Amino acid sequence: QVQLVESGGGLVQAGGSLRLSCAASGRTFSSYAMGWFRQAPGKEREFVAAIRWSGGNTSYGDSVKGRFTISRDNAKNTVYLPMNSLKPEDTAFYYCAVDGPAYYSDSYYPDDFGSWGQGTQVTVSS
Q1: Pair type for strands 115-116 and 33-39
Q2: How far apart are CA 3 and CA 89, in angstroms?
Q3: What is the DSSP letter of 95?
Q4: Which residues contact 21 (CB under 8 A, 6 or more apart)?
Q5: What span, in angstroms and rounded, lies between the C-alpha atoms of 55 and 35?
Q6: Which residues pair with 116 in a beta bridge?
Q7: Are residues 87 and 68 in contact, defined by beta-carbon separation less than 8 angstroms?
Q8: What is the pLDDT along the chain (126 residues), one digit of tens a residue?
Q9: What count of other Cβ atoms lies within 10 Å of the Cβ of residue 99?
Q10: CB 10 within 8 A of CB 19
């Protein structure tokens, strides 16, 4: 069974930066996608970014393109999400997800992923 531990959330002013991390353990990961989603109160879970474990292909939600960058460390089974130029509308609970599709896509749905972390809160003040 896979375990996901997210960290790096917190409170930041608009224009600031945070870096989220997601450490996965329990088994090895091959070519499947690993990603981040977020959910604000009263809203649906939204795709943020994803990366294929093999090859490193990345994809981003339109609202974060150019500001967030997803990366991975295969040796540590860890995925990172540096977030720059944060806006109040980025405020949400951020979830790490693994066991995504083997294919590359410009965008993913929550149902595409099989395992989820417990999430970390990101709050951006104006």
Answers
A1: unpaired
A2: 29
A3: E
A4: 6, 7, 8, 78, 79, 80, 81
A5: 14
A6: 97
A7: no
A8: 789 999 999 999 999 999 999 998 887 665 578 899 999 999 999 999 999 877 788 999 999 999 999 998 888 889 999 999 999 999 999 999 988 888 889 999 999 999 999 999 999 999
A9: 16
A10: no
